[in-house]
């Protein structure tokens, strides 16, 4: 069980993950915050959009860039229910997101604290602060439930 109250942006990311699950998508949600205000929220939609890049993080980053009118999201925080994959971690670097808060770790597909650890690599073009395990129990339960229903 989580030991502290869930930050509001992570609660919103979990809500987005539930929307993804309702639509038959892997339940991952993401929220971009700037100066304490939610700028964008999204959930996984590769099946619905017929787009393999339509991960929650990618869609939230695109929406935030549009809202802010800038391809650089300096000073923004990203809350996501699952540890970002290599593609999303690369987009986080290119967007210059300041902090990443994620729920469940992903030993198989993650690229932040697992796998290639892209932010820790020599020559990394940007290294956001990373905080894992925020809302981990809720995020992991959504994922377990989703995949159990598929087996």
Q: Give the strand order of the largest sheet, numbering strands 1, 2, ... along the chain.
A: 2-1-3-4-5
- The run of helices and strands is HEEHHEHEEH
Helix content: 25-40%
Query: Could you say which structural class the secondary elements and strand pairing correspond to?
Result: alpha/beta
Q: Strand-residue fraction?
A: 15-25%
Write a concise synopsis of the structure shown:
The protein is of the alpha/beta class.
Describe this structure in words.
- The protein is α/β, with parallel strands linked by helices and 151 residues long.
- Helices cover 38% and strands 20% of the residues.
- It is built from five helices and five strands, in the order αββααβαββα.
- The chain has helices at 8-22, 46-49, 56-68, 86-95, 136-150, and strands spanning 29-34, 37-43, 76-82, 99-104, 129-132.
- A five-stranded mixed beta sheet has the order 2-1-3-4-5.
- α4 links the parallel β3 and β4.
- α1 (8-22) runs parallel beside α5 and α3 runs parallel beside α4.
- The longest helix is centred in the first third of the chain and has 15 residues, at 8-22.
- It is globular, with a radius of gyration of 14 Å.
- It starts with 7 loop residues before the first helix and ends with a helix.
Q: Which helices and strands occur, and which strands form pairs?
A:
Elements: H1 8-22, E1 29-34, E2 37-43, H2 46-49, H3 56-68, E3 76-82, H4 86-95, E4 99-104, E5 129-132, H5 136-150
Parallel strand pairs: 3-4, 4-5
Antiparallel strand pairs: 1-2, 1-3
Helix pairs in contact: 1-5, 3-4
């Amino acid at each position: 069980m989580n030991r502290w109250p869930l930050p509001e942006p992570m609660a919103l990311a979990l809500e987005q993950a539930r929307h993804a699950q309702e639509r038959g998508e892997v339940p991952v949600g993401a929220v971009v915050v700037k100066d304490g205000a939610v700028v964008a929220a999204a959930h996984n939609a590769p099946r619905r959009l017929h787009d393999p890049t339509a991960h929650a993080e990618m869609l939230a980053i695109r929406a935030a860039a549009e809202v802010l009118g800038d391809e650089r999201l300096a000073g923004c925080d990203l809350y996501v229910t699952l540890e970002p994959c290599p593609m999303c971690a690369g987009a986080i670097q290119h967007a210059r997101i300041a902090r990443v808060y994620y729920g469940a770790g992903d030993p198989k597909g993650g690229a932040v604290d697992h796998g290639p650890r892209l932010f820790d690599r020599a020559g990394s073009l940007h290294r956001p602060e990373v905080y894992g395990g925020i809302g981990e129990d809720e995020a992991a339960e959504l994922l377990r439930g989703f995949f159990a229903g598929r087996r």
